[in-house]
Amino acid sequence: MLIVMRHGATEQEITRVVGVIRDLGYEARLMPGAQRTAVGLVGNDGRVDASRLEGLPGVQEVIQVTKPYKQVSREWQPEPTVVRLPGGATVGGSEVVVMAGPCSVESERQILESARQVKEAGAVILRGGAWKPRTSPYSFQGLGKPALKLLAKARDEVGILVCTEAMDPEGVGWVAEVADIIQIGARNMQNFSLLKAAGRSKKPVLLKRGMSATIEELLLSAEYLLAEGNHDVILCERGVRSFDTATRNLFDISAIPVVHKLSHLPIIADPSHGTGLRDKVIPMARAAVAAGADGIMVEVHPNPDAALSDGAQTLFPDQFAQLMREVRAIAEVIGRRVAEPASVGA
Amino acid sequence: MLIVMRHGATEQEITRVVGVIRDLGYEARLMPGAQRTAVGLVGNDGRVDASRLEGLPGVQEVIQVTKPYKQVSREWQPEPTVVRLPGGATVGGSEVVVMAGPCSVESERQILESARQVKEAGAVILRGGAWKPRTSPYSFQGLGKPALKLLAKARDEVGILVCTEAMDPEGVGWVAEVADIIQIGARNMQNFSLLKAAGRSKKPVLLKRGMSATIEELLLSAEYLLAEGNHDVILCERGVRSFDTATRNLFDISAIPVVHKLSHLPIIADPSHGTGLRDKVIPMARAAVAAGADGIMVEVHPNPDAALSDGAQTLFPDQFAQLMREVRAIAEVIGRRVAEPASVGA
Amino acid sequence: MLIVMRHGATEQEITRVVGVIRDLGYEARLMPGAQRTAVGLVGNDGRVDASRLEGLPGVQEVIQVTKPYKQVSREWQPEPTVVRLPGGATVGGSEVVVMAGPCSVESERQILESARQVKEAGAVILRGGAWKPRTSPYSFQGLGKPALKLLAKARDEVGILVCTEAMDPEGVGWVAEVADIIQIGARNMQNFSLLKAAGRSKKPVLLKRGMSATIEELLLSAEYLLAEGNHDVILCERGVRSFDTATRNLFDISAIPVVHKLSHLPIIADPSHGTGLRDKVIPMARAAVAAGADGIMVEVHPNPDAALSDGAQTLFPDQFAQLMREVRAIAEVIGRRVAEPASVGA
Amino acid sequence: MLIVMRHGATEQEITRVVGVIRDLGYEARLMPGAQRTAVGLVGNDGRVDASRLEGLPGVQEVIQVTKPYKQVSREWQPEPTVVRLPGGATVGGSEVVVMAGPCSVESERQILESARQVKEAGAVILRGGAWKPRTSPYSFQGLGKPALKLLAKARDEVGILVCTEAMDPEGVGWVAEVADIIQIGARNMQNFSLLKAAGRSKKPVLLKRGMSATIEELLLSAEYLLAEGNHDVILCERGVRSFDTATRNLFDISAIPVVHKLSHLPIIADPSHGTGLRDKVIPMARAAVAAGADGIMVEVHPNPDAALSDGAQTLFPDQFAQLMREVRAIAEVIGRRVAEPASVGA
Questions:
Q1: pTM of the shown model
Q2: Which of B73, B244, B272 to mutate to test the interface with D (most CBs of D within 10 A)?
Q3: What architecture does CATH give domain B83-338?
Q4: Nearest-5° Cα angle at A265, A190 to A132
Q5: Which subunits count as partners of chain C given 3+ CB pairs below 8 Å?
């Protein structure tokens, strides 16, 4: 951490900054410059609260040098994390994994049909929400607990892994009983009570980037999970808020190489929420794989026009099959391979 | 809702849109234009899911005409909501209410001293966090439940109302036992499990605008509270995320007149989080009151340099006293009055 | 255009809106709804100023139905524009065109060497700035007119097309004498005097998206060029401003399919400015091609570490050659082909 | 400037960074830390191009310590700049100056009537556009040069100062002949050819903040003016682009205290463009003055409903008179005074 003093800061002000740094238990190092003095805080373990120093008289700016996250960083662990799923599938190695399914679980018939269709096309994991975080209290909020039973049935009968979202600490327990991956949604990326509960569960966690979260904040939220002992974390880019309404969100594909450089955790991409428009999902899924994503998550429904939520961004089953073919070819260009459906359940 | 068809959409495509609208239980009205046809959906009660229509063939765009919120709107209730607090204080009438105190409760001595100082300067409500939502798992997270006892003691001994944050559904119950106002923080504005729990409590709720929430989303989150039966809702502008790092957040003062036009709910402003810098808090607090805010919330600490969190944006007690004087004068210019401390507790 | 009246708007207010619409020379159509009345303005030719209607008493909102651009739209011209360049290269057809070269022209040796290297690797067009728009007046501002001569020499001796930027109306004339494509930079996307001058020139124009321009604004700036008679317009996505500082800009790859749907104009992508970081340029260039870009523009320098501007985002020649190989393979996956260098000049 | 090396950077990599710094003519200072080494560049005069260092092997990040602007900074000149206008009015001292008038000059009658009305209510400067930068080529673009004559007539007959916009280097000359203040619009904040031309004129310049410009970029654009020798620069906050469409722009009132801290230049606020909505202009104008703005600029028209541009955000004359009364009272609360109309022209 570097504490930059104002031009003309007094000796006394500098001495006070040095004093506060030592009070906090760190070493202070003076760095006189041409225009102003800076004070380096040496030994920062990521726990120093900049706010304590920013307000001192004579301080112009406090600059973070050390990254505030630890266990999620490439420096902590240089080799990539590989999350191992039942049936042998992995996320974070050389394979590109595909998760697909409807926005929400609507009925037994719908979820079983979805599971069969996406597995046949090549998806390894079935997605589908039991609880749906909706902006309006009057929108369809998901079937709740009964949906978990339907997902369990789809897992057993079709033999496909399951990923579904938990919305509160209590829900983590329910989801963990059924799902192979617990999803934490974008709106809950900084719901720290939820993160702590998921960090204590024994299941892999899919952590979606918040609506306007920086990559650093995403990594810090992942750090909550690792700090609680759960190392099986998969990050997910799903678009961030921007000023243009041409797409639902601005799908930040560059987050993929950025995360790969800063962290050892795998990152997948969700072009369905990332764009919000069916005809944009296919090109953007291809783009994400070309950029090096460790997987993609797409919404597919047997009959999107009748979907109870997110219909406009949901693929028809034959569109999804076509997408799988293109994605396989692009993965090969960059020396990767799309994972084949594992055999679980049935 | 207006469904705009593409230029050259076929009769069949238009007929299908009309059919889906009728299936959903609404009336469809054709509006042929010079360049394209639009179909009006009449009778929208706010529950129509645009997504269902957006994906249909031939549809170019779906335009919301009706606002998606209901009970929070000025059309639902033209007269302003006035939230009545113990001791006679009100939020949302002609008075401007001031909430002040430290970022977090740190010790008995600190919170009692804070309570006395802010009350003496004219604050009606003491703020102070028991649990702190922190971006990093390694930052100070608040004292937790013991802090609630200290707040209760401050309330009793100093005779000042208390506002503090709940971070999960379980915490709502604990906070409601002690606080006069339950705060829901910016990161939890779309934590719907938490909103539902707060909506079922009997205490007034202070709902902070999310980091990158639109006003419409803020109002929809408030709608969750009203839909559960809690009508004592106070909104709070606290800055939104922007591209400039010159301030911690971009403090959106225009949210005040915008909310006042769309909704009957009171809205206060938090210039401490809104700017993140002590020397910006005073001018921006004045600005918020000049723009018509129903109150302000500011961070004050007996010794900001030693604060365990948010020190850089925290006022010294004498700065706060000066701010109170300026704010009183500005309130009068626009025909309002800063509320006097009520007598509660002791 | 749809003028939505407030709930409870009076007959008189509605009559006035109808009157103003008729005064403007359009037809007004009443659309009574369940909660409020709307008035449709029929016959909008894109010249109606919403502002005139927004301020009328009783009006809640004015909604644009017709897009404000015309000649650039897919509805105006369904088949894609193909820009034909000297030597037979085309932009906007089935080929993917690659433009490459240094940020700025620094010396004869540097630009000739750059031209040879990028042509050898497969680039069709040499890029290189004569004038550089720099945020600071103290940064290197380009060699100016002498650089144009060096570009002309590179064109002649190496036999490669040239694209370079004009910064003001006077500069358009100078650039048009030498370059095959006149570039308009992001900061000048809404420099309307410059757009008009470029629209009157006879050379193709590469129009870069502004720092925070919506796609609609980009298309409206292109409309300025077409309205002046220049139909050879190539759009360019180069990243937009966002809240995250992890990359220089947020490279909006979804702009590619969005533009392709709304407009017949070709769109290329510039991952060098889009990310600002060398190791992100390669994955993002691949992603842009996978998403359907009609070309890419990348910064390459014989010795990036010694570049006078933009060194950190500039590829080494061998990195560029590797990129070309990957991009060719990805183009084939989606049924396209990377264009081969044309023979011009020498 | 601080060059932060990656954890585990080699001796060789560090030595190379030191070498490049010395090649650039600056001093390098090693700062070994607990987790990584940093290299300080000492003697930075604001001309160092970070890009040169960012791309070197082993470099993780380059951090700017010195601000990139010079002459506009408070460190360069601690006392505030006071711009002196004909007739004795000043901008940047203790007075708050009001500029008002229509968006564009439409006719002799309209501009003369506007001039009289705004002067009578207390405005010191008449605003009104001769050329209007419009997003669409089909919108009203202003009367052009004839409008300058009408402004000159208003100045002479009514005796009020005039501020109007120049859109290109050629236009600067024409505007400078007539206007007391040359305005540079938001879309042209980084039109460097225009800035250089305005910097060479002898008239005060009103520089509006760009649509998505940071404060630092605004100050750097001002630096272009000072670097050319023009020190009479007035900055103007007019709202920035954001994700919420509830207002036309997000009016960033905190820019006022931020600029006052970093720079000696005066800053005024334009709540008309800042909000885009008539009923938000009044509260936001009050807020700007309460926050310490050196002036406000508001759009007023004798008949806003008939205005050819920006009608929805334009005040009626009696609304403006009311605004003046409130603004005078708020200025007094913070120890300032609204300037009285000067006597010029007639």
A1: 0.93
A2: B244
A3: Alpha-Beta Barrel (3.20)
A4: 40
A5: A, B, D
